[in-house]
Amino acid sequence: MTAPTLASTRFPALGTTAELVVSDPAGLPAAEELLRAELQAVDQACSRFRDDSEIAGLHRRAGAAVRISPLLAEALQVALRAAELTDGLVDPTVGQAVLDLGYDRDYAALDRDLAAPARTGGEAPGWWRITLDRVRCEVVVPRGVRLDLGATAKAWAADRASAAIARELGCGVLVGLGGDLAVAGPAPAAGWQVVVGDDHATADPERDPVLSLRSGGLASSSTVCRTWRRAGRTVHHIVDPRTGDLPAACWRTVSVAAASCADANTASTAAIVLAERAPEWLARQGLPSRLVALDGRVTQVAGWPEESVA
Is-above-0.85 flag for pTM? Predict the structure, then answer.
């Protein structure tokens, strides 16, 4: 019996690359249409780089109760849940801190070598200051608070899109958005073969480990991708909410598998912030994880599978 044929496509989206793989080649055009529509809606709701996004509107109406779309309400709920589960290690109120580091536009358009040093404003205002009413789709963002859903929205979008495509087409689906992967529907017999590396764009099965993913999601957070310089200092996009600055330098990349891509991304981001305490924390959560130190040393916890290289 021959193995089922997979079909795939890639295109730019959400400041990164969207990758779509389906187990039914005939369904690829419809699947791509569904994915593009989903990502466009998420961008309209959550982008901090668009003046016409819902997030931008919330900042303009800070301090007031604002009616929002069900989609943004769901995105905010996912972000607030991540903050609660990590005791604030992943916090959507780090928006101003990320801006202060220089991440104020799509990464492709970012000035990679700024002469001025980064300003750090100290501890983030705190996720608990956001008041969200899911029933009424209403939220209050206090004055002086800027939201950044970057730690959760992309992974959540992968979860939503993969589930919607599998439900609509009845086939197996893998959606990848940067380092965030979500699968839904029936998996191939050998599982979805995923290469795990520092950067999804340069991961190489001849060099990097290959993981078989059958359900849920996989996320990788890295401190060596999406970097730029401020006054000679290399900075990146992951902020420690406790300081408003970069986390202590410890891991170059953390990859986590979980029941959903959003949960995996929450954990991988928290692990970068936790630095040397990350392996113990991930083991307590029971999340299979692979942590690569700055010197290349690899730590595996909670049953991360044996690695194979093609």
Answer: yes
